[in-house]
Write a structure and sequence with these properties.
The chain has 131 residues and is α+β, with helices and mostly antiparallel strands. It is 42% helix and 25% strand. It contains five helices and five strands; from the N terminus they run E-H-E-H-E-H-E-E-H-H. It has a five-stranded antiparallel β-sheet with strand order 1-5-4-3-2. Helix 1 packs across helix 5 and helix 3 runs antiparallel to helix 5. The radius of gyration is 15 Å and the shape is globular.
Length: 131
């Protein structure tokens, strides 16, 4: 069973991901891509509520995980999706690093997994902070 962590945001999808991107860069990590799924849907005449994904990572954390299990490259860089649901509420969601560890037979208490868990929690909390 996949452990999906979901947090509500008081901001729009755009603002939430702008804040997440700033937090990631401020932490010295790399933003590899920002995908606007709603824009992609519109390009084929489909409608999708605001939905964007940010792909990011820090080679200092990701490399040891891939050294332990190269298949972890399937789940790295990390990804966070931000979306507006049918009620208009905005949420951030991501896979728990412990789930990534389990998928690739890495101990969930490995130092890299502990650091990723803390970093994801911290970064996403900054993105959704009310300020």
């Amino acid at each position: 069973m996949t452990q999906l962590i979901t947090k509500p945001s008081p901001h729009s999808v755009d603002v939430t991901l702008d804040r997440l991107e700033a937090a990631i860069k401020g932490a010295g990590a790399i933003v590899f891509a920002r995908v606007d799924h709603a824009k992609g849907a519109a390009s084929v005449d489909q409608v999708l509520r605001p939905t964007q994904m940010l792909m990011f990572g820090n080679p200092m954390l990701g490399t040891p995980l891939m050294q332990a299990a190269q298949t972890a490259g399937l789940d790295l860089p990390l990804r966070v999706v931000c979306y507006q649901n049918a009620s208009g509420d905005v949420h951030l969601s991501y896979h728990a690093p412990a789930e990534i560890a389990a998928t690739h037979s890495v101990p969930s208490d490995a130092e890299t997994i502990t650091k990723m868990t803390g970093a994801l929690d911290n970064l996403t909390n900054k993105a959704i902070a009310a300020d």
